[in-house]
Amino acid sequence: MVQTLQAVTKSEPLIELEDLTREYSGRAGAVRALDAISLIVEHGEWLAIMGPSGSGKSTLVNILGCLDQPTSGIVRIAGTDVQQLTRQELDRFRAEKIGFIFQQFHLIPYLTAIENVMLAQYFHSMTDEQEALRALEQVGLADRAQHLPSQLSGGEQQRVCIARALINQPSILLADEPTGNLDLANQQIVQDHLRTLHRGGHTIVMVTHDPEMAELADRVVELHHGRIAAERRQTIGR
Fold first, then answer.
1. Which of 11, 13, 10, 31 is nearest to 22 (CA)?
2. Is 13-233 a CATH 3.90.190.20 domain?
3. CA-CA distance, 76 to 65, in Å (whole number)?
4. What does each C-alpha distance from 183 to 6, 135, 149, 211 come to in angstroms?
5. Count of alpha carbons within 13 Å of 47, Cβ hemisphere only?
6. Strand 46-50 vs strand 219-224: parallel, antiparallel, or unpaired?
7. Which of 40, 71, 103, 185 has the smallest count of CB within 10 Å of its CB?
């Protein structure tokens, strides 16, 4: 049995980062986007990551989403050291364990809402139209299942993204500025859906510039120059 299928007890942290460093080559030499970060995220926790542009937030999310590899350090997710996985195992691990909600919706424009959700199923296992429809029902979009992205509002498109992120029942939801492109009314709708998911036991790691969004989280980590500059636990919005 491959490492990705091992059982993980709830007593283990869901995410463990140890001395995580990511460097990129630049004209003036190496640029350190993340600098020896150590961080633990527990099962069912909602973590908000804040910080100015260039602080390393997106780099951290890309590494947690297995879209990028650190220069050094350890990334352990659901008990698995992801750096020890082959490319094929890593792709499978990402499809099984992680759901993505981005500021840019990344919907395929010529596929309907339900087909966009089913696409995530395709990369995981087999497609199931009824299961995809139930995922859209959970975000209040069953009646928009056959609409193309161009026929949906920004808020509706983001809710399709949430349904797509949930369809494979991932261990972690990674949300990168999930309300950044939405008006106030649709921001509230997406916030409510995230609250519901969190209360249902989902683990959420969210990048945001919005203090009101950050208030929904159990814990806020602030990054500056690739390091954790501040961290606080909170009960606001619980």
1. 31
2. no
3. 12
4. 42, 23, 17, 16
5. 23
6. parallel
7. 185
pLDDT at 1 over 50: no
**In Å, what is the CA distance from 205 to each residue of 48, 174, 191, 224, 225?**
6, 5, 14, 18, 20
Angle formed by the axes of helices 154-166 and 113-124, to 10°?
20
pLDDT in tens, 71-116: 999 999 999 999 999 888 888 888 888 999 888 888 999 999 999 9
pLDDT at 76: 94
Residue at token pair 């630049």: 26
Whether residue 17 contacts residue 90, with contact meaning beta carbons closer than 8 Å, is answered with no
Residue 3 carries which DSSP code? G
Over residues 40-71, the pLDDT tens digits come to 999 999 999 999 988 999 899 999 998 899 99
What pTM, to 2 d.p., does this model score?
0.84
Tokens at 216, concatenated: 């929904």
Taking the C-alpha atoms of residue 137 and residue 112, their distance in angstroms, rounded to an integer, is 15
Reported as a single tens digit per residue, the pLDDT across 160-212 is 998 998 888 888 999 988 888 788 888 888 888 888 889 889 999 999 988 88
Q: Which of the 8 DSSP states describes residue 19?
A: E
Q: In this structure, what token pair is assigned to residue 210?
A: 């919005």
Euclidean distance between CA atoms 70 and 137, whole angstroms? 38
Quote the CA–CA distance of 95 and 123 in Å, as a whole number.
Answer: 7
Helix ranges (DSSP H) in the chain: 57-64, 87-97, 113-124, 129-138, 154-166, 184-199, 211-214
